[in-house]
Amino acid sequence: MIGVTTYLEHSTFGIWEAEAVVLHRVYVESIAAAGGNAVLLPPIGDWRAETVDWLDGLVLSGGADIDPIRYGQPPHPTTGTPQPARDDAELALVEAALELDLPLLAVCRGMQLLNVALGGTLHQHTPEVVGTTDHQPQVATFGKLDLAVAPDSRLAGIVGSAVQVQCHHHQSVDLLGAGLVPTATAPDGTVEALELPDRPFALALQSHPEQNAEDFRVFAALVEAARAHAQRRTPARRDSR
Fold first, then answer.
1. How far apart are the first and last CA of the chain?
2. pLDDT per residue as tens digits for the range 103-135
3. For the segment 151-201, what is each residue's pLDDT rounded down to a tens digit?
4. Taking a C-beta distance cutoff of 8 angstroms, is the pair 108, 208 a contact?
5. 105 sits in which H/E element
6. Which residues are 185's β-sheet partners?
7. CB distance 173 to 183 below 8 Å
8. What are phi and psi of 83, to 5 degrees?
9. Which residues are known to be catalytic?
10. Whole-model pTM?
11. Nearest alpha-carbon partner for 203 in 155, 157, 152, 166
12. How far apart are CA 27 and CA 67, in angstroms?
């Protein structure tokens, strides 16, 4: 069971127009294609280690900008409207996942959130830093970037020393959070992947692997780690009965 964080957005579906908990379908399809089952986690609830210890893995999905108050900065004019409920829920989920050594895949906003959760900061508008809009060419359009991957990283073991990715982000990692190691960069130097090397599986990607319907290697690696986590956890559950 792979938990996936979700959006709380004003949505239209069927005959209804209402606040809804939503997620891009491709996340669920990618997990299923890799052999896992997705469980959607709304940004409302009590998310602690005690309430999520039944999960085998966690995906932090992409989405809205993190409130810059979370990393001690005033908002940039381009930074989106804060979503405190989602920030609260996902920061709690990160804490729970790290406490449980839960296999973790953080995607786009998820990577930024992991960095902030560990004390890092963000560039609130990357085009001002790198001078291009390659990472977010247009609204709702993915840019394509060729990344250099650190040779001894977990990511290199999954995709090799170079990979082309799809990305859509105007923010990016600035100061690194505690323990995080950058393992892929864009041609302009933007950090495009982070890892926690002291964890069984903790991989963060600024790009969107769920958007590539031909390549499920990242999700397959997550599902494999989740199965190993489930096997380690099962004896402990039996002993507790």
1. 21
2. 999 999 999 999 999 999 999 999 999 888 788
3. 999 999 999 999 999 999 999 999 999 999 999 999 999 999 999 999 999
4. yes
5. strand 104-107
6. 148, 191
7. no
8. -125, 80
9. 108, 208, 210
10. 0.94
11. 155
12. 24
